[in-house]
Amino acid sequence: MKDKFYINNLIKKLINDFDKYLTNFPNKEIELKREIKNTSLEMLKISYEANTTFDLNKRIDIQDKIISYIKYLDYLVNDCYDKKIINNKKYIKFGENLDYLLRYIIKWRKVTMDNEKT
Q1: Cα R_g (the chain), whole angstroms
Q2: Domain CATH code at residue 65
Q3: Nearest-angstrom CA–CA distance, 102 and 105
Q4: pLDDT in tens, 17-47
């Protein structure tokens, strides 16, 4: 696997993209924007925690939680698209970024599980 903190960098990039592309939120949907931001930041925080824990079972639990955050963010982005807050191009970009991140988390989780077995 790449650098230990590569996933953290992917999450940071995702947060920056959210900040960049979710600027024109309608006031009535500001809670949706806040939820996206808070979920992304929480995901980054627990990703650092997973990288720094030596307990492999705990790391796997955290990785599972990150996966659930990615799926939740996908739902929130889809909600933004359905409400026409973001256009198709942004929707696709966010989807690709979330999918890419998900693939790396799953790979990281597999490596962790393989290490646990040895």
Answers
A1: 15
A2: 1.20.1440.60
A3: 5
A4: 999 988 888 999 999 999 999 999 999 999 9
